[in-house]
Amino acid sequence: MTIILRWRFWYALVLAVTLSSGPVRSAASPEPSQAREFFVYLGTYTGPKSRGLYVCRLDVRSGRLSSPALAAEAENPTFLAVHPNRPALYSAERPLLYAANEVRKGQVSAYAVDREKGTLTLLNRQSSRGEGPCHLSVDPAGRNVLVANYGGGNIAVLPIDREGRLGEATAFIQHEGSSVNRQRQEKAHAHWIDAAPGGFALVCDLGLDKVMIYQFDPAKGSLRAHEPAFASVQPGAGPRHLAFHPNGPFAYVINELGNTVTAFKYNAEHGTLQELQTVPTLPADFKGRSTTAEIEVHPSGKFLYGSNRGHDSIAVFAIDSATGRLTAAGHHATQGKAPRNFAVDPTGRWLLAANQDSDSVVVFEIHPQTGRLTATGQAVEVGKPVCVKFIPVQ
What we know:
Strand 21 and strand 22 form a beta hairpin. The protein has one helix at 2-19; strands at residues 37-44, 52-59, 64-65, 69-73, 77-82, 88-93, 107-113, 120-127, 133-138, 144-149, 154-159, 171-174, 190-196, 200-205, 210-217, 222-232, 239-244, 250-255, 260-267, 272-280, 291-297, 303-309, 313-319, 326-333, 339-344, 350-355, 360-366, 373-381, 385-392. Strands 1, 2, 3, 4 and 29 form a five-stranded antiparallel β-sheet that branches. It has a four-stranded antiparallel β-sheet with strand order 5-6-7-8, with no helix packed on it. Strands 9-10-11-12 form a four-stranded antiparallel β-sheet, with no helix packed on it. The chain is built from one helix and 29 strands. By secondary structure, it is mainly β.
């Protein structure tokens, strides 16, 4: 706990220095946990029913979700990240067409957010330095975008300037190796990346069955080798995404191929992950085909959620605040097919499930004592939704 608070203080200090050149949050702008209404941005795979990035409005008092409107045209904006203190949003995108002699690399786009209307204005685009970018994040100081390229099996850091635009990569690391699943783990497949407490960055590599650990300097946008270099999961598990506990030294990895969650104790002073337990995300009697996708810890730190594609459900776990260990607390159907992504709103009242294969986003109410989900009857249609992010309405 002390280490986590120290990390937050350190980043707050860095952020204060970063913002000293001018304000980026107006006095009238609500804090996320106090806002009554949020813009909900939806990343999609473009196709017959989608042209890019969409925006809805969520009323956190009622759970009402408005119909999606096109916020910006883009090619396959598969994952989104919100700047922590500027009206800016970033998207990992996979262009549909390439020149004949062009290496099939993805791109990251920066957008300015209109906090009153919700529309997005393209600022610029930069190469992700690899094929198939599938995840990105903004460091807590708001200085860099970190991006994981699934197809390329590599990661990169792109600096953010004072206007929110992206610069060329200041760091790039290529992963090497494979694991036991010859179809999905024939090589490295970086699937998730984010800054971690204590000056580190963690990367889930599905192809290597490892959570890679790097030393990360947000001021320089640099990544360096660390010792230990990684923490392993069970062979063939396929680590996909990771979620930190909001107020404890714990991290949770959802394993796509193994349909499990691995709980770790995270030491922010030394940059180490110690496995606590691995638990299944599927009911014991399920016999069909399924893979996991997203994972998120409730803002209260009491509950953890993970999505199952095939079983088409959200698995719920209770978190022991002292030990970080998980106890299964049930499954809830997402009322659609292939919940590629979901998100809990910052107030902790609502969970929005994005069902990729049924073109829907469905709203569930979260029980504050048990973490269980109740369908609200609220749902919207959007083509191939694959990411959900919130920004308070100004």
